[in-house]
Amino acid sequence: MSTDGRRDGRSLRYQHRRSELLSSVTEFLLEQGIANLALRAVAEGVGVSHATLLRHFSSKEELLTAVLDHIRTDVAARMAGDPGLASAESTAELVVRMWDLLCEPKEQRQFLLLFELVGRQPRGGQGDPALADSLVHDWIELVVERLAGEGWERQAAEPVATLVLAQFRGLQLDLLVAGDRGRVDRAVQTSLRLLQPPNPATSVSG
């Protein structure tokens, strides 16, 4: 069968299956990166027509935002459904398990994609608000919800969640550049004290 024939077949397959197409696009970008990103190249890479891709994603920005959302929701689903993650009894324990998982080469691809995206943002100005939500705010909310379940006030949880997110990304950048897993693992362990649940308020009787 010709390449065009395979592409036409996949286009029909994906015509009404946006989520399936998004999974394929996400995997393609995780493998190939986003240097010189073009929708025609993405369509070619996942085996669909340019028109089919445009039917679901009208611009590169919309596609990238959808990919970032897909990565985040996949991580959230694994936090809830993976026995090794779901059984974590505290946020600190979950952080350690997530760190081990995200240090696997296949998982590190999402950080490489993140760093590429940051490099595309305009200097000295505001970037795309939708990308800001997908890159930062939605991830912070994910951690805040977890901390709130352990008794944290949301106002106190937000800066801690921000630090957790920055820690994961900063240490992954360090690991990808320097390759010193032992040192960054020790840094993760040192940071866990930030995640100790707050002491419950106590009343003083007179």
TrEMBL record:
PANTHER family found in the cross-reference section: HTH-TYPE TRANSCRIPTIONAL REGULATOR BETI (PTHR30055:SF234), HTH-TYPE TRANSCRIPTIONAL REGULATOR RUTR (PTHR30055)
GO molecular-function terms, A-Z: DNA-binding transcription factor activity; transcription cis-regulatory region binding
Residue ranges of DNA binding: 38-57
Positions of the HTH tetR-type domain: 15-75
Signal sequence segment: none
Xref: InterPro entries: Homeodomain-like_sf, HTH-type_TetR-like_transc_reg, HTH_TetR
Coiled coil (residue ranges): none
UniProt organism field: Hoyosella subflava (strain DSM 45089 / JCM 17490 / NBRC 109087 / DQS3-9A1) (Amycolicicoccus subflavus)
Name by which UniProt lists this protein: Transcriptional regulator
Domain of life: Bacteria
Entry keyword set: DNA-binding, Transcription, Transcription regulation
Gene3D superfamilies: Tetracycline Repressor, domain 2 (1.10.357.10)
Pfam families for this protein: TetR_N
